[in-house]
Amino acid sequence: MLARTLSTAVAALICCASVFAQEKPATPTYFEQEVKDSNPLRTEQANELDEYILALKQDNARLRKMVPNDYSSPQAFEKSAQGYRQAFCDSIGYPPPGDVPPVAATFKQIGEDGIGTYFRAIILVLPGVHAEGIYIVPKSLKAGEKAPLVISMHGGGGSPEVALFKGGANYHDMVRGGIKRGYVVFAPQHLFSAEGYPKDVRNRTDERLRLVGTSLTAVEIAKISHSLNVLLKRPEVDASRVAMVGLSYGGYYALVTPAIDTRIKVSGDCLPRRSEQRDWLSGSSCLCEEVEGISEELLAGEED
Length: 304
Prior knowledge:
By secondary structure, the chain is an alpha/beta fold.
C-alpha cells in the first residue's frame, strides 16, 4: 500500500514537472545590429550641420539688416549701430539685473613713486557687488589740468598687480606706460581665481549667472561701465577722452566693452596668435604696437 502511494506521488511530480517544462516560455529572438554600422549616419549628421552653418555664413542678408551701414558721419554710424549693439546686449544678458545702490566709491592711497600716485578703488556697481581696481594719477599732471583716462585690463589668470608690479610680467608697460605718458589709468580686477573657491570658479559663476538671465561677461562689462560713471566725474579726468587696452582675455574686454559703452572712444587689444584669429587679425599676432600711436593722438585731443 505504501509503495503504491509513493509510486503515485512520484508519477504526479513527474507529470507536474513535465507540464511546467512545457509552459516555460522560449527565449525571444531580437533584432540586433552592430553600433558601428550607424557611424556613417552620425558622420552625415555632422556634415549636414557643417554645410548648414556654412550656408548661413554665406547668406549675409540677415547680418546686413543688423550691422552699421551709415558712414556719413560718426554720429550717423553710431546711430546705425544701435540694432547691432542691442543684439549683442541681448545675447549676453546685459545689463545685469539690479539697481546701483547710492553708496559712495572709495579711493584709498596705497603708494606713490616718481611717476604717479596709486589708489585702491572700490566702486559699488550692483546690489552687493563691487568693482575693484588700481587707480593711478600721473605726477606730471599739473594742478587744474585734466588728462585722458585709459582702462588697462589684465588677462586670464592675471590681476592689476601682476600687470603692474615687478616689471609687469608679460604685460610689460601696459599699465605704467600710460602713467609715463601723462594719462590717468584704471586697472580693474576681473574674476579668474579666488582663494577658497574651485579652480574653475569663473566658469561655474558664469553658468550660475546664465541660469538667472545674465552672464559673467555682462556683469564684468557693467563693472567697467559703472566705474566710468564715477571716474569720469573726477577732477583730473577728461571725460571726453577715454581709451581701453587689454591683453589676452583683457583684449576681449577691450573689444566688447566699447561695443556697449560708447564713452570709450579708442580701443587697443593684444591677443595671442591662433589660427582661427588670423582672418580677422589680418595675420597679426598682437595689436599692442598700435596702441602707442593711438594713445598719442588721444592725449593730444586729435580725432580720427
